[in-house]
């Protein structure tokens, strides 16, 4: 799909990054209903689930069912997260056609996630790329690109060094730099995207995945926009949370980004009223840790309108 010059693509990640942070198991029909509600708002790209160890993340044990349900929504680009080549094969066998690989710049973080060094994960990613069917699309998420919960701020040179073998495996990929902890700042975001776009001009596209832990989610998105990025991850109702920052709200809220871009005259293709309806369903999930501001502001206006 070709976007207008003044347009962004918002990737709704609540059904994966958001749901995985919820403790009580969300019934599969409820998950599907939320995906359908987000789709009805105009969302056309969504990270709907992840193929991971079901013992480590039982919330995502119904991934094959979510993939099947998402495939029934015409025009929905449903991507699924896969941390290793083995899980990528599971996703492909379930019918997924847009894979979202992930590895961390931080060795300690990557070892904690998949018990491999970043370079070992890079080699595994190369195997994943080599095995990709021709009708499939790949996205690559670089976690801890700005900050690691264990060791602090990530050096720019470390990100560039890890990207070398990853881009060598394939440049026909969208690469998302991820602010895993939400501790990035606009100057850091702008500088890192400037550096990677200069060093790797052959990469098909760049994206930003931000969290709102310290209230800078939208500001960091705007910094990435200024640096030329046009694809942004977000979660309805700011669903997410961060285990390393108690009380943090998790992903930048989709409704906050749609509000910001709409008022900048930048097209998102998402209807705000319907998005708020979907976000309210997300916010009502038992155990959900939510954030964002626009949902509450519009909700208050709705209450005033009803009262009058």
Stated plainly, the CATH topology is called TIM Barrel
What Rg, in angstroms, do the CA atoms define?
Answer: 18 Å
CATH architecture designation: Alpha-Beta Barrel
Beta-strand share of residues: 15-25%
Biggest sheet features: 8 strands, parallel
Task: Explain what you see.
This protein is of the alpha/beta class. The chain has a single domain (9-307), classed as Aldolase class I (TIM Barrel, Alpha-Beta Barrel). Helix content is 43%, strand content 16%. The chain has helices spanning 14-18, 28-40, 63-71, 85-93, 107-114, 118-130, 156-169, 186-199, 217-226, 254-264, 272-283, 294-307; strands spanning 9-12, 45-50, 77-82, 98-104, 137-143, 147-148, 152-153, 174-178, 205-209, 231-234. The strands form two sheets. The protein has an eight-stranded parallel sheet. It has a two-stranded antiparallel ribbon with strand order 6-7. Helix 2 runs parallel beside helix 3 (63-71), helix 4 (85-93) packs parallel to helix 6 (118-130) and helix 8 packs parallel to helix 9 (217-226). It is globular and about 60 Å long. The model has no long low-confidence stretch (mean pLDDT 94).
């Amino acid at each position: 799909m070709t976007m207008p010059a003044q347009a962004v693509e918002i990737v709704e990640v609540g059904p994966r990054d958001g749901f995985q942070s919820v403790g009580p198991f969300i019934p599969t029909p409820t998950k599907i209903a939320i995906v359908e509600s987000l789709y009805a708002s105009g969302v056309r790209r969504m990270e709907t689930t992840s193929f991971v160890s079901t013992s480590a993340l039982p919330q995502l044990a119904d991934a094959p069912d979510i993939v099947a349900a998402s495939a029934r929504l015409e025009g929905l680009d449903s991507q699924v997260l896969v941390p290793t080549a083995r899980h990528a094969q599971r996703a492909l066998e379930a019918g997924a056609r847009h894979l979202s690989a992930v590895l961390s710049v931080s060795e300690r973080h990557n070892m904690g996630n998949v018990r491999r060094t970043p370079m070992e994960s890079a080699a595994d990613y190369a195997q994943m790329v080599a095995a990709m069917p021709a009708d499939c699309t790949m996205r690559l998420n670089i976690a801890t690109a700005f900050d690691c919960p264990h060791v602090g701020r990530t050096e720019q040179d470390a990100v560039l060094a890890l990207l070398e073998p990853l881009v060598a495996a394939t440049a026909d990929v969208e690469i998302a730099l991820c602010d895993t902890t939400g501790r990035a700042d606009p100057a850091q975001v702008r500088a890192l995207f400037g550096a990677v776009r200069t060093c790797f001009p052959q990469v098909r596209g760049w994206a930003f995945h931000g969290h709102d832990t310290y209230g800078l989610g939208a500001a960091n998105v705007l910094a990435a926009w200024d640096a030329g990025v046009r694809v942004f991850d977000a979660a309805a109702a700011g669903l997410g949370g961060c285990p390393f920052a108690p009380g943090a709200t998790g992903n930048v809220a989709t409704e906050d980004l749609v509000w910001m871009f709409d008022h900048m005259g930048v097209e998102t293709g998402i209807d705000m009223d319907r998005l708020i309806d979907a976000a309210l369903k997300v916010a009502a999930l038992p155990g959900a840790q939510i954030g964002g501001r626009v949902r509450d502001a519009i909700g208050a206006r709705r209450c005033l309108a009803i009262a009058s």
